[in-house]
């Protein structure tokens, strides 16, 4: 996928005059947003100018910005570093910089824009943003995770004359976040040119009113604004396209009057016969092409809304159901950063990450703890990945002195409404979360009033999905006794899985879900064996930048994932795969350090209890001690039984343990080959092999694709591995790797997943960790061979070629 990713960013469309979209594309530049086939929305990412630091009068159109850095969006300026032990963001923010940054864009409009309405839409600006057009302030937004749209029509200059859009982003008030949040315009921007009649921002919905084995009843609506000076008679039409892109139905509503100066709800409904359902494993997407037509047939507005047809529900006694099947949600919570890319994450990075987690058996993700980008949810739709979509990490009580609690009272209703409106057409989303470990709950009157207010907003904007929140220590704050928990459609709790199971047993009408859970086996067994438990979301799926306060400097990231920062699977990830994956799993490891389960301990006891130091388990057969000694070998497998071999000699077969614990052997170490074979019904279904490594001899490069485009979302990961003369990975090798590129491409990030490495991610040099590192390449948009070479002193250089594709 080399040229399509940058187009798959948005499902919002508007239409104005015929031919205007093409004219805007020519004048403004940038690729059209093709995933939703918009006719009045244009990508506005290219050709910005950037300055780090506050500058007086930078919002004025005549301000001299020629010396500013040219950038294309999305752009996270903070990820460039440097890492600083004394950074105001502290370890929570990964010891990376914060502060004020300015962006400016010069553009002109074509003659066809005369008489049209022009809007600018931002998917996210971190944070406390202000926006000016030609020196006129048009809006501000405290939240860095909110998407927003401003009309700029009245402040624009005549067609052909230059306009200047200026944006100020301010992260200077610190500490403000519990994880790395980035800085600047880190998500996509688009410009929309519409007529006087158009849908309100995210004002259109497609809902499945009824679904049975033979048909689906759809209700389609749009809140349509008439900004003209007179009423107009119009009707709503909906052309439904199936997963193959062919039109399968057209629904037409009755003509109604659209009064001037306000929005009017327009609705249409109809039935589809034998629709293909959106499902895990078959994420079939439909699209509704919505058209508002005047009674004389003129097209006033057009919008394309992707949607899915599925039946998702939660039951008190049996958990989660999708399309008539009882499914246990095997989920992970993840933060939005893309490791070395910070918060400006190419879609290819998200896709690589999510597909890797799905290969471990993950079928659901929780967006921790804020709205993610629209294209992330588009991706979940296309992959068939279930989503718990979360809105807030705090309410009125702070977790950090400068966090969102300062704005919650004034902005939370606005942000909640925009959040649910923007995301409600995604079939991947099956439940909303209105809060994570909220510190207001010790004050029940406050917490309950906020739950009621937020839940009313979510129900009003989306009556099809339930609402939960991640309760934290509910037995301490008596949430199950004072009515707080029972205000929620589905009761969610972080950790303490037995407490939530008891809350359901005490009141069987409660629907329950684990909103955040430890990776301990005991936590899984509670969820696995209780039908009422809809599922769980592990903390966490992926190592993430920030939240390094407990470890302190030099740590810059939190290593709690099933996979590391560059998505390398850890032994604990393979263990989870042996419990969750439906495909055969056999994976070998050496147990080096035991892990103490603190999930059921009192908070302060668990925090204070030191874990044994060490790496836990290692997936190699290359211990530092090569003399004769005992090694505890673990095999993570979902096979009926596993047989272990050392240098071809069988060490016996063992059955899968009923409690899902690892199958273990105490093995007399000998260098050579350790092999595990899994059997089902007596037949071999999978195997894993570990070989003892010799001295480092060469660098092996493993590209994960053969071609790459030049768009923001087009990157290809290339794994660099230090191997011995026989091609065995050398796990203890840490040479300094140097990457060089020839041809129409470049290395845009280079990372090793280390928690303590402070090398800039854009640097072409990076030390290997565990014998590995990952380079991410992007093309320039020109065709030709791209050659990556990675070298290190004393090692044979690795070299591979990709094909650069023309944009």
Describe the secondary-structure layout.
Blueprint: H1 20-28, E1 41-43, E2 48-52, E3 69-71, E4 100-107, E5 117-122, E6 129-133, E7 136-141, E8 148-151, E9 163-170, E10 189-194, E11 197-211, E12 215-226, E13 232-241, E14 247-252, E15 256-258, E16 262-273, E17 278-279, E18 282-283, E19 286-294, E20 299-307, E21 312-315, E22 319-322, E23 325-327, E24 329-334, H2 347-359, E25 364-367, H3 374-383, E26 386-390, H4 408-423, E27 429-436, H5 444-461, E28 467-471, H6 474-477, E29 491-494, H7 497-506, E30 512-516, H8 521-529, E31 535-538, E32 544-545, E33 557-558, H9 571-580, E34 586-591, H10 603-608, E35 617-618, E36 630-637, E37 641-646, E38 649-655, E39 663-668, E40 673-680, E41 683-691, E42 698-703, E43 707-708, E44 716-723, E45 736-742, E46 745-751, E47 765-767, E48 772-779, E49 784-791, E50 798-804
Parallel strand pairs: 24-25, 24-31, 25-26, 26-27, 27-28, 28-29, 29-30, 43-50
Antiparallel strand pairs: 1-10, 2-3, 2-4, 4-9, 5-8, 5-10, 6-7, 6-9, 11-12, 12-16, 13-14, 13-15, 13-19, 17-18, 19-20, 21-22, 22-23, 32-33, 34-35, 34-36, 36-39, 37-38, 37-40, 40-41, 42-44, 44-48, 45-47, 45-49, 46-48, 49-50
Describe the structure.
By secondary structure, this protein is mainly beta. It is 13% helix and 37% strand. It has ten helices and 50 strands. The strands form twelve sheets. Strands 30-29-28-27-26-25-24-31 form an eight-stranded parallel beta sheet, covered by helices on one side. Strand 26, helix 4 (408-423) and strand 27 form a beta-alpha-beta unit. The longest helix has 18 residues, at 444-461. The N and C termini lie close together (11 Å). Mean pLDDT is 93; it is low at 1-38.
């Amino acid at each position: 996928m080399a040229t399509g990713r940058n187009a798959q960013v948005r499902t919002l469309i508007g239409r104005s005059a015929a031919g205007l979209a093409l004219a805007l594309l020519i004048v403004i530049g940038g690729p059209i947003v093709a995933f939703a086939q918009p006719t009045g929305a244009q990508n506005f990412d290219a050709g910005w100018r950037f300055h780090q630091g506050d500058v007086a009068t930078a919002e004025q159109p005549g301000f001299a910005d020629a010396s500013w850095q040219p950038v294309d969006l999305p752009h996270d300026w903070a990820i460039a570093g440097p890492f600083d032990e004394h950074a105001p963001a502290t370890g929570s923010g990964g010891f990376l910089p914060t502060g004020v940054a300015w962006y400016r864009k010069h553009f002109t409009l074509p003659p066809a824009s005369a008489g049209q309405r022009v809007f600018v839409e931002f998917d996210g600006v971190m944070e406390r943003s202000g926006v000016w057009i030609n020196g006129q302030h048009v809006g501000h937004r405290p939240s860095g995770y909110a998407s927003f749209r401003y009309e700029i029509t009245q402040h624009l200059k005549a067609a052909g004359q230059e306009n200047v859009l200026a944006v100020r982003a301010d992260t200077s008030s610190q500490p403000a976040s519990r994880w790395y949040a980035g800085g600047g315009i880190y998500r996509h921007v688009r410009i929309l040119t519409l007529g006087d009649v158009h849908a309100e921002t995210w004002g259109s919905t497609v809902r499945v009113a009824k679904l049975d084995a033979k048909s689906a009843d759809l209700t389609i609506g749009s809140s349509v604004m008439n900004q003209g000076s007179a009423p107009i008679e119009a009707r709503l039409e909906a052309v439904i396209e199936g997963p193959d892109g062919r039109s399968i139905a057209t629904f037409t509503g009755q003509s109604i009057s659209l009064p001037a100066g306000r929005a009017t709800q327009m609705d249409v409904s109809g039935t589809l016969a034998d629709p293909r359902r959106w499902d895990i494993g078959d994420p079939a997407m439909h699209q509704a092409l919505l058209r508002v037509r005047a009674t004389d047939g003129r097209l006033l507005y057009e919008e394309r809304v992707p949607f899915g047809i599925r039946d998702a529900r939660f039951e008190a006694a049996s958990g989660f159901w999708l399309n008539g099947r009882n499914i246990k949600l095997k989920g992970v919570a993840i933060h939005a950063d893309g490791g070395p890319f910070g918060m400006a994450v190419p879609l290819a990075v998200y896709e690589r990450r999510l597909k890797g987690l799905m290969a471990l058996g993950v079928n659901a993700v929780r967006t921790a703890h804020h709205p993610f980008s629209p294209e992330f949810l588009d991706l979940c739709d296309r992959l068939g990945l279930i989503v718990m979509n979360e809105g807030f990490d705090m309410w009125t009580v702070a977790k950090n002195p400068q966090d969102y609690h300062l704005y919650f009272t004034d902005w939370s209703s606005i942000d909640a409404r925009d959040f649910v409106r923007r995301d409600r057409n995604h079939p991947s989303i099956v439940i909303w979360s209105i809060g994570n470990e909220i510190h207001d709950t010790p004050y029940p009157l406050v917490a309950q009033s906020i739950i009621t207010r937020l839940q009313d907003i979510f129900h009003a904007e989306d009556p099809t999905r339930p609402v939960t929140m991640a309760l934290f220590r509910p037995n301490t704050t008596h949430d199950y006794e004072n009515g707080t928990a029972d205000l929620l459609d589905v009761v969610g709790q972080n950790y303490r899985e037995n407490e939530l199971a008891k809350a359901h047993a005490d009141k069987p009408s409660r629907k329950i879900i684990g909103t955040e859970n430890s990776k301990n086996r005991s936590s899984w067994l509670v969820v696995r064996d209780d039908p009422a438990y809809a599922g769980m979301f592990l903390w966490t799926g992926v190592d993430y930048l920030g939240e390094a306060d407990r470890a302190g400097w030099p740590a810059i990231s939190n290593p709690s994932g099933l996979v590391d920062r560059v998505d390398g699977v850890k032994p604990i990830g393979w263990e989870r795969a042996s419990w969750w994956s439906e495909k055969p799993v056999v994976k070998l490891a050496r147990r080096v350090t035991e892990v103490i389960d603190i999930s059921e301990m009192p908070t302060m006891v668990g925090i204070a209890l030191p874990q044994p130091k060490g790496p836990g388990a290692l997936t190699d057969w290359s211990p530092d001690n090569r003399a004769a000694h005992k090694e505890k070998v673990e095999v993570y497998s979902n096979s009926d039984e596993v047989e272990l071999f050392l240098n071809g000699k069988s060490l016996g077969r063992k059955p899968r343990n009923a409690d899902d614990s690892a199958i273990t052997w105490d093995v007399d170490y000998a260098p050579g080959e350790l092999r595990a074979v899994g059997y089902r019904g007596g037949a071999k279904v999978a195997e894993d092999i570990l070989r003892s490594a010799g001295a480092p001899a060469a660098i092996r490069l493993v590209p994960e694709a053969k071609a790459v485009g030049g768009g923001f979302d087009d990157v290809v990961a290339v794994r660099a591995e230090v191997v011995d003369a026989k091609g065995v990975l050398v796990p203890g090798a840490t040479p300094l790797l140097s990457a060089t590129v020839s041809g129409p491409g470049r290395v845009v990030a280079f990372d090793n997943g280390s928690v303590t490495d402070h090398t800039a991610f854009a640097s072409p040099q990076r030390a290997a960790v565990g014998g590995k590192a990952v380079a991410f390449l992007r093309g320039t948009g020109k065709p030709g061979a791209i050659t990556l070479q990675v070298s290190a002193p004393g090692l044979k250089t690795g070299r591979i070629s990709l094909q650069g594709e023309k944009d």
